[in-house]
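Objective 1b of the project was to move from sequence-level analysis to a structural picture of ligand recognition. The entry below was assembled by the postdoctoral researcher (A.K.) and checked by the PI before modelling. It contains the amino acid sequence of the target and the SMILES of the bound compound, adenosine-5'-triphosphate.
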Amino acid sequence: EPVEDKQALLDFLHNIGHPHSLSWNENSSVCTSWRGVTCNNDQSRVIAIRLPGAGLSGPIPNNTLSRLTEIQTLSLRSNGITGPFPLGFSELKNLTYLYLQSNKFSGPLPSDFSVWNNLTVFNLSNNSFNGSIPSSISHLTHLASLILANNSLSGEIPDLNIPSLQELNLANNKLSGIVPKSLQRFPSESFSGNNVTYASALPPALPVSPPKEKSKLSEPALLGIIIGGCVLGFTVIAAFMILCCNDSGREDGGLPVKSQKKEVSLKKTTSESQDKNKMVFFEGCSLAFDLEDLLRASAEVLGKGTFGTAYKAALEDATTVVVKRLKEVIVGKREFEQQMEVVGRIRHENVVALRAYYYSKEEKLMVYDYYEQGSVSAMLHGKRVEGRSHLDWDTRLRIAIGAARGIAHVHTQHGGKLVHGNIKASNIFLNPKGFGCVSDIGLATLMSPIPSPALRSAGYRAPELTDSRKATHASDVYSFGVLLLELLTGKSPIHNMGGEEVVHLVRWVNSVVREEWTAEVFDVELLRYPNIEEEMVEMLQLGLACVVRIPEQRPKMPHVLTMLEEIRRMNTGNRPSSESRSEVSTPTVIAADIASSSVPQ
Ligand SMILES: Nc1ncnc2c1ncn2[C@@H]1O[C@H](COP(=O)(O)OP(=O)(O)OP(=O)(O)O)[C@@H](O)[C@H]1O
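Corresponding predicted holo structure:
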């Protein structure tokens, strides 16, 4: 039990306005039963406080939360907290996520940023902070998100040279002067509602293209983004698991614990009229269940994705389905239903069938078939299960061809207007014939936009796509190209090469191909197969064509499919024997061809 942290929290609560409902019992364990408090694994320190919308009021009492020296996440958003920015927070050296938005803070922003070496998200929006934006913010070398919108900040925007910064919002303040060069890569909305101008002739809405990089990807920007992204992703998953396991009485639809084995119930603590909102089943669905069955089913969390949480649910008749509980659906019922009708009608062996959906104000569920083998991402990057072999070349080709067939089919739907919008290895499964099939179709347009680039989707998203809802056929092709590179290299779209350097797959492959070729680009697991270099190189060329920067220059999905099928024909029909191939080009030689033909990023 972290006794000192516990006392600091009690001192905090006793000295700030709070409703009766928020009471921490001194005699109970701070780590397991205090609402909004998370401890580290050995329960020796408090590492996160999350009290959003908890009804806190008045200033943050001095020398209370600042004693939580191991805290990483502090969320006090949407309360009625007044007074200045608590100076003691600047001493919290492990702080990574700070959410103080939507309170009544006033006075200047902090100016000492020397201790926050890990700060990744800094959100002070919707308060009454005034004074200028300190240039010392650029000491925050891991900052990915800086949100200071809707305050009364004035003066000029400092030249914030923070390469890791992905999201910036300074809108609706009293800022003036010129948007510094270092921040012109952000869209004009980041600065709207101020009196600022752009010095350069560049159109403000367009992000400034980054300077053409040289061969190696050593940009600190990427490093920051990725490390920030990884930390955030990790923390979100960890926090989610902790919430699932510990927080049984949540009001926000949290998942009551059933057992220690992460088995959860889908039933929400809130009740709602289920009569009006029935499960809608699609044709060909032999599943017989209603919402009650689904909510009663014993479920297991498969993972939390961009659009919500996926559960594996075992129905009483022993059928297993995947239930996706969507969050942040921004469209109304009608639009949601229309999209579901389009997606739910698709019956194709390379598209994961949407079996049913449920829509109500409080709950949006989608029901899919369950794929026991897991996703292509898990197959490629997951822990090697004893006895399970790695993905051989033929399987990878079948994954690519199947996924391409599925996506090409999706692109023909709804008068050619349907877009997948979220192609990535974790959304691709293997159908019974061992070919890829795609899931998660058409959800991006229904959900609130994912900040650009979404941490989870980073690496797959086409560079032109600033709003995740505006995906196009061409941006799908880009994401598919990344998938091809992933299958070829065995590397995640954003990965670490061993040292501290973080690599963006597309740029890395491009740079290797452009510079001096090494066969290293291919997954070492594939090198054990004889005579597949030519196919791999063809596929590499295709992948690189899909990920060119200019959307119009990317091939269309049917063409990509044809090319892949041709590669497979090479594979199954025309593959020369190992003897006759021995004098054929090595990857090194062939790569030179690619280098001269590929379009650089
Ligand atoms: N039909 C399914 N069968 C088996 N596993 C699934 C199925 N659908 C999703 N999963 C797995 O559940 C986990 C969570 O899926 P989910 O789709 O919510 O997140 P994601 O794929 O990581 O991101 P996104 O939300 O962007 O698709 C992933 O590991 C995914 O591969």
